[in-house]
Amino acid sequence: MIFKYLLQLGDNALILGHRLGEWCGHAPELEIDMALTNIALDLTGQARNLFQRAAEIEGKGRTEDDIAYLRDAWDFRNVLLVEQPNEDFAFTIVRQFFFDTFNYYAHQELTKSKDEWLAGFAAKSLKEITYHLRFSSEWMLRLGDGTELSHQKLQTALDELWMYHGELVQPNEVDLELAKSGVGVDLEKIKPLFNEKIEEVLSKATLNIPTDTWMQSGGKDGKHSEHLGYILADMQFLQRAYPGVEW
Amino acid sequence: MTHLNLEDQFQAKIDAETKIEPKDWMPEAYRKTLIRQISQHAHSEIVGMLPEGNWITRAPSLRRKLILLAKVQDEAGHGLYLYSAAETLGANRDELVQQLLTGKAKYSSIFNYPTTSWADIGAIGWLVDGAAIMNQVMLTRASYGPYARAMVRICKEESFHQRQGYEIMMTMAKGSPAQKQMAQDALNRWWWPSLMMFGPKDDDSAHSEQSMKWKIKRKSNDELRQQFVDVTVPQAEYLGLTIPDPDLQWNEDRGHYDFGEINWEEFWNVVKGNGPCNRQRIQARVKAYEDGAWVREAAVAYAEKKDQRKLVSPKAQAEAA
Ligand SMILES: [Fe+2]
Ligand SMILES: [Fe+2]
Q1: For residue A176, what is the domain's CATH number?
Q2: Which of A32, B65, B239, B303 is the most exposed place for a label (fewest CB within 10 A)?
Q3: How far apart are the C-alpha atoms of B269 and B98, rounded to whole Å?
Q4: Is position A102 within any domain?
């Protein structure tokens, strides 16, 4: 079970890091380019740690790269939110803000995990994630309360991505079981904090909070959107085309 | 004091290896030449992000992906330091960027070649960063202080890049037959463009002589090119790869490698805009700039609103009273 849990955490980081990597060289300004790449670096680094640990726990001789590059979509356990396309900077920021908010509270809880490795990992990652959340919240405010155009673009992105934010705090079987044993995060516990933070930032950013309550889900159990297949086609190309070699 | 005197004093300072600093008097031509050289260098860093960024999503291992992300990020950082160095000479970053986007300013032609396989990421690090280092080590002693200091920092990172690139080449050259073929193919495509990075032959170089006198260049194009060939040939041999030059051979008398003639027609063609990716590179920069306009505008508008609010907030008023 903890293996699956590590994959849930690691896949979120890997896939979002992949999306942010797509911005590299194309961001609205150099400073933003560097900041997005920084977050991509942090997330990919976290994924790497999590996969190393998962491989160790699994004990079947797989490596971090086997886990990242040799699974198909149904074995990926990331939430649907992180595989959504970059679209424009507004979409990227809303997606990032939802994820960072969740990730921040989740890792705060994980520092108290009964699993020593996870607690240590969370403490280390929390520093990075705190910076990510600051970055994305600040951009929520700048875009939401910037110009009329930026406000409109951010509102559109928010309306489009809203249905993907619920899955972050909606427990699946793995979440429930690991919360019970004190190893994983109790999502019911962080849900109010998560919702509060989102409301606070959205209202500061002068945005209308969408009223629809239907939330998409399934990513954590391997049911993905069409986007993931293309991400993997890119990401796994070399490992699939030239199997079994060193890079 | 006459103008001539100032210029003599300036040259005397340079001859004595005293750094020129932003507030010092300098000839207009020196200032202009430096702005052109530094901004071209900055543009090269930024455009250079594109061919390598092209492989970030396809990097074949998590470790390689992290190294590549960090490398491309370093290049963005180099662009930033260099734009700042140009600003100390009175240039304006946005105007410099406009010159790049409108095609008025040049950048290193090497980035107008495509990265078609993963081995290109290795070849670029090894050869392109390697050639850049040859140039830049000399520039750490450039007469203009802010430029020289920026180059010290940049050079350190470039030598990391060079080592990482060589390590990719090594892994592939010692890997499967397909990987070795990929590595050889990358070397075949990047070798000659890398030699072209040092610019035209000394006889045909428009800016060299004055730049040497001003010490914003300390070695000629041909000297640097020779130095690069001498260092790189043994590295290729160690990889077991073949440099695509039938005329390449060690010359005992000269103590250097002799090498074949560069295809200067190709060189000038790429400079003129006819390289395989000139258009795509500029289009990508223009797109990023245009698509990002609303974001930059929003940031400015928000900062202004925030300042306004500070001014009218009761706390600020109380403090002012
Ligand atoms: Fe650089
Ligand atoms: Fe570099």
Answers
A1: 1.20.1260.10
A2: B303
A3: 23
A4: yes
